[in-house]
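Might you be able to review the protein record set out just below?
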Amino acid sequence: MSPANGALPASEFPRFVSADAVRRADVTETIEATEAERRALAERLELEAIDSLTATVKLRAVRGGQMIRVSGTLEADVVQTCVVTLEPVPAHVSESFEALFAPPSMIEDEGLEIDIDPSLSDEDIPEPMENNRIDIGELTAQHLSLGLDPYPHADGVEFVDHEEDPAEDEVEEEPEKPNPFAVLQKLKPRD
């Protein structure tokens, strides 16, 4: 549920960089989530724990200083839940990411029909800056989410997808049921 004023809910890992600072000179930030931030983010991402989360993020002005290109790498140690046994599954996540940010006035109104250039990647479609700032912590959290194993399983446990092997799903054929109209056929007068 979004707040009434249309603003996004507060990030669990807020780290803002001013677009004006990036327009003056490229910025490189190394950010690390605190214990409280990791707990809150683990709850949001439905993880048992996030033991560490760090990212190195580079920001530079592009397109005449109007937009900001963000590229980064993140490293995280997380504990997920095994989809088979529900046991804790430690995992290391290492991801690279890119994004483009622009002032809201430069981004087309979502309510309008727009032509999307199929040659553009997701990194080339700009996201809006909020109050001329970019939340690189939230961007890191989103890419951590994308880097998680969607089906974590404990060592030695195999996830069996029964839909992949039709032989396992064979069901005994049901005996043929009598045709309910056969009885009526017998009652029909014969010439």
Summary: Residues 1-6 have pLDDT under 50 and may be disordered. The two ends are 74 Å apart (CA to CA).
